[in-house]
Amino acid sequence: MKQLRLGVLAGLFAVAGVLSWGGARVWDTVSTLPSVPLAAPVVLALIAAVLLATALSLRSRLRAQRERRPGAKGVEPLMAARAVVFGQASALVASLVSGMYGGTGVYLLMNSLDIPARQEQAIYAGSAVLAGAAVIAAAIFLERVCRLPDDEEQGTAPAV
Description:
The protein is mainly α. It contains 5 helices and no strands. Helix 2 (39-66) packs antiparallel against helix 3 (77-111). The longest helix is centred in the middle third of the chain and has 35 residues, at 77-111.
């Protein structure tokens, strides 16, 4: 399994942002621009919280297992691999979604801040970008937690 690369995530964010900005510009000239839902940043923040909770849980269980504490609950390799795959998929999707809302937010900031409803939409879009960044940070943390000790020496992929 390959490690997440920040360059790939930044590239996805940038491409989605540019396409979304252009799409918002065209859509607004043809018709009314759809609103940014309040649920967007909320759902992304929930995903970030789940990823962070998973990472913290796995980290404490792995630490207890390494220290050979009595009654320590081990971590199955397949469960760790599933957690890493979930984190990587979440980071990729969050990068695309954050780019989409980022491009829409930039369009709203450049053209429509005199309308109160558009100001609110720009705030929702900015919040979605921040929540997407939190998802990416939590996914990278989860990936680091699930890394095997041999991986740190070689700098290769996470635990599978």
